[in-house]
Amino acid sequence: MSVQEFAELVTWHDLVDIVLVAILFYNLLLLIRGTRAVQMVTGMFLAAGVYYLARLGKLVTVSTIVEKFLIFLPFAIIVLFQHEIRRALANFGRQPFFRANRQKLQASHNDAVLAAATLASRRIGALIVFERREGLRNYAENGIPLDALVSFDLLINIFAPDTPLHDGAVIVQGERIAAAACFLPLSTDPELSKELGSRHRAALGISEETDALAVVVSEENGKISLAVGGKLLRDLDAKRLRGHLQELLVEAAESAPAGRVKEAP
Fold first, then answer.
1. C-beta atoms surrounding 9 within 10 Å
2. For residue 216, which phi and psi values (nearest 5 degrees)?
3. Residues 60-72: tens digit of each pLDDT
4. CB neighbours of 240 closer than 8 A, spacing ≥ 6?
5. Which residue, 240, 200, 244, is CA-closest to 219?
6. Where in the chain is the domain with CATH 3.40.1700.10?
C-alpha cells in the first residue's frame, strides 16, 4: 500500500481518535499502577479469555456461566474501582494552572515539621492532614473550625494532652488550618500491621480516599510517619519529612501524580 492510498484510507479524524484513545488508556494505566486494581484487571482479562476459549471449543455450559458474569461486569467495575474512579474525576476537575505562593507554603510547612518533631520528642500524639488537589471540606466540617494561619505555637497547643482539640486531626488547606478535632475514615486494609493505632489507620484512610498527605506522630514511641497514596512512610526525621512536604506540596503541586514519593535528600 502506497503512502497516498494510506492517506486516503486514514483521515486526520482517525489519527486524532487514535491519539485520544491512547492517551485515555495510558492515564488509566497510570491510575491503577501499583495498586490492587492491577490484579482485578488481570482477573477480568482472564475471564474474557476463558469466555473466548469456551466459545471456540463449544463449551456451552462454561460459556453461558462466564457470559452471565460478564453482563454484570460494568456494575462490578464501579464497585471495585470506586476509589480510582473518584480520584480520576477529581483530577479531571482540578485547576491545572493554579500556583500557590511558594514562600508562604514553605513557611507553614516548616512550622508543621517543627511542631511534629517537638511533639515526637515529647511523645505526644498528633495527626496533621494537608489538602492537595482534592478538597477536604466534608472532613473539615465535622471538626471545630479555626481558619487560622499555620504556626508552631498553635499546633503545639492544639495537640497538648487533655485539651478539647487533642483528639482528631488537624486539616491544613494551603497555609491555613481549616479545622481541628476532625474525624477521618479508618483504613480497612486487612494487611495492616496490628501495631498501628487509630491515628495511623485514620491517616492511611484519608490518603486512600483522597490525595491528601497525613503526618502522624505516635504517642507510644514518638516516631513520625507520613501517609500518602495509601502507603505509610515510617520513622521519618524532620529533614526527610520536610523534603517530602516540599516535593509533594510545593514543587509538584500540579505536575506530579498523586502518591508518587521520592526519598528526600
1. 9
2. -120, 135
3. 888 888 887 777 7
4. 263, 264
5. 200
6. 102-251
Q: Please say if the pLDDT value at position 136 is more than 70.
A: yes
The pLDDT confidence band at residue 96, using thresholds 50, 70 and 90, is very low
The CATH topology of domain 102-251 is YojJ-like (1 (3.40.1700)
Residue identified by cell 491545572 is: 96
What is this structure's pTM?
A: 0.60
Cell numbers representing residue 179 in the block: 479545622
Whole-number Å distance between alpha carbons of 11 and 92:
29
Q: Where are the alpha helices (DSSP H) in the chain?
A: 3-9, 12-32, 37-56, 60-71, 73-80, 82-92, 102-121, 137-140, 152-158, 198-209, 238-245
CB 202 within 8 A of CB 208: no
